[in-house]
């Protein structure tokens, strides 16, 4: 047990009268309602945050619109990139403060908060900063012949869509918001972020750092409160030009419908899934166990791209599950701020209760619980990392996203059968294929239905590589150059001379 001491800045931040961040300053909020922030490691309330109302939504959207047509439009692309680079630097300078705050609110173990929420976020921010000065259209010769000797020339421009509403989930509350804000700002858009009601604090601090980085007031705003109430107000606001949503499939569908119904507002949806991982028979059992740990259990399985359905060769499955159970039994489970913790709590009570109900359903369906399947004693929202052996591909746990440390396994005999099983899902966010036979793997690439396919790896995101789902896992792509299409409109300009 080596629980770290909270930094003074973190303790004092928790006691502030936190609410929202609008037009370059922290705002307490006009309504009287406050909602609690709970530490998932202890179940204790650590702070309260003001519940936003239409007043905060209107103020944030007005500020974002004014900055879009004013200060941010007048900021050169090079300077926009410089602003993002300075913010990346400030995230590094405040790494420990933000990591502690994040771990306290989300239950993410402190090492993951440092590495992903801060270090990775800075890398992503710098990647997008580079794009700010490289967003351009094309010039083209027109195709039809001239009628009377007149000439034509034409060009396209990539113009920022306007004010973006960024709706963020609780599992990577800084990093996912950074993806949205950096992409929006690089393209010349401004943004109003709505964090999850479970993790409302860290973005308030990031927005303060953005001001310190020289990003003008109104370019980044944060409104806190219930998604059900604030979501429709933000999406339906006349200044909202685009919604960038990351979250669950049912909420994503509701958001998409709302955006479409409100004059076809642009929308990207990064949603959940039921990601598959397929291990071919040439992989050793020990390598399979390492791969499963990487794919399924990091951050207690609360990663949108994590694998939840695993397909193992019939000849290997007994040995692999036995070795996996052994490894899981050695994990150090503990509080998120304990440096020695390898496996922390689930992020909130509602999610904890959902996972416990899924354990019950697995038992009712007659699945074999090879390891785990129980809540852990004590305060906080802890469950055991769990191995379930399915009876068939139709079992609930082979089909429904748990978003927890619950990996479900099925044996296969033929590789053709394996591909059919991998594709037998309404979702398609990410998948992985594990084999030493690269030629065989490459032949399978175009047969697996998934937005991302990893070979001999899982859960790695790189800012240069587009990321997003097919089928019910979403619409649109983040990263690479693909993001530009989603934050700009293409204008065609034609000239006769
Ligand atoms: P969620 O859908 O419950 O909530 C996401 C956000 O939407 C929150 O900020 C919430 O307040 C808001 N919201 C809720 N109702 C809304 C409404 N009616 N209108 C507008 N906004 C509303 O998801 P969650 O539980 O926070 O996150 C877990 C889910 O997110 C999982 O399904 C996971 O797979 C998915 N996820 C996907 C990605 C990805 O990139 N594809 C990344 C992380 C998480």
UniProtKB/TrEMBL annotation:
It holds the Pfam family Aldedh. It comes from the Bacteria. One of its GO terms (molecular function) is oxidoreductase activity, acting on the aldehyde or oxo group of donors, NAD or NADP as acceptor. Gene3D superfamilies: Aldehyde Dehydrogenase, Chain A, domain 1, Aldehyde Dehydrogenase, Chain A, domain 2. Residues 31-493 form the Aldehyde dehydrogenase domain. Belongs to the aldehyde dehydrogenase family. This is Phenylacetaldehyde dehydrogenase. It comes from Enterobacillus tribolii.
């Amino acid at each position: 047990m080596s629980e770290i001491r909270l930094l003074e800045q973190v303790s004092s931040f928790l006691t502030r009268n936190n609410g929202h961040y609008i037009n370059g300053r922290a705002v307490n909020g006009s309504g009287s309602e406050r909602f609690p922030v709970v530490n998932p490691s202890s179940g204790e309330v650590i702070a309260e945050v003001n519940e936003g109302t239409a007043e905060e939504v209107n103020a944030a959207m007005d500020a974002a619109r004014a900055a879009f047509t004013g200060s941010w439009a007048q900021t050169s692309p090079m300077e926009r990139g410089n602003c993002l680079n300075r913010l990346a630097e400030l995230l590094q300078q405040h790494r420990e403060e933000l990591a502690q705050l994040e771990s306290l609110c989300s239950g993410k173990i402190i090492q993951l908060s440092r590495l992903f929420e801060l270090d990775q976020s800075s890398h992503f921010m710098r990647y997008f900063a580079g794009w700010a000065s490289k967003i351009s259209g094309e010039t083209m010769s027109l195709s039809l012949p001239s009628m009377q000797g007149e000439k034509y020339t034409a060009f396209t421009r990539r113009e920022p869509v306007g004010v973006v509403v960024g709706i963020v989930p609780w599992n990577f509350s800084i990093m996912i918001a950074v993806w949205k804000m950096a992409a929006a700002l690089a393209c010349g858009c401004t943004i109003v972020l709505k964090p999850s009601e479970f993790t409302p604090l860290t973005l308030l601090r990031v927005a303060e750092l953005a001001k310190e980085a020289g990003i003008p007031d109104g370019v980044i705003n944060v409104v806190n409160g219930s998604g059900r109430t604030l979501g429709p107000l933000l999406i339906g606001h006349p200044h909202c030009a685009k919604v960038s949503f990351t979250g669950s499939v049912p909420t994503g569908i509701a958001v998409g419908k709302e955006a479409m119904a409100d004059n076809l507002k642009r929308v990207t949806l990064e949603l959940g899934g039921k990601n598959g991982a397929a291990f071919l028979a040439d992989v050793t059992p020990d390598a399979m166990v390492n791969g499963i740990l990487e794919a399924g259990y990091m951050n207690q399985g609360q990663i949108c791209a994590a694998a939840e359905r695993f397909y193992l060769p019939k000849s290997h499955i007994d040995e692999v599950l036995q070795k996996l159970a052994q490894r899981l039994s050695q994990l150090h489970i503990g509080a998120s701020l304990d440096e020695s913790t390898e496996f922390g709590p689930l992020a909130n009570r509602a999610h904890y209760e959902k996972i416990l109900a899924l354990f019950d359903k697995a038992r009712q369906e007659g699945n074999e619980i090879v390891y785990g399947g129980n809540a852990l004693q004590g305060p906080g929202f802890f469950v055991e990392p769990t191995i379930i052996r399915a009876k068939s591909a139709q079992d609930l746990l082979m089909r429904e996203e748990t978003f927890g440390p619950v990996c479900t396994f099925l044996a296969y005999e033929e590789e053709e059968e394996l591909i059919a099983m991998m594709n037998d899902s309404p979702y398609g966010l990410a998948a992985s294929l594990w084999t030493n036979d690269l030629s065989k793997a490459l032949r399978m690439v175009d047969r697996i239905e998934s937005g991302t396919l990893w070979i001999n790896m899982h859960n790695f995101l790189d800012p240069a590589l587009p990321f997003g789902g097919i089928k019910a896992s979403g619409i649109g792509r983040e990263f690479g150059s693909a993001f530009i299409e989603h934050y700009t409109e293409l204008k065609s300009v034609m000239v006769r001379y």
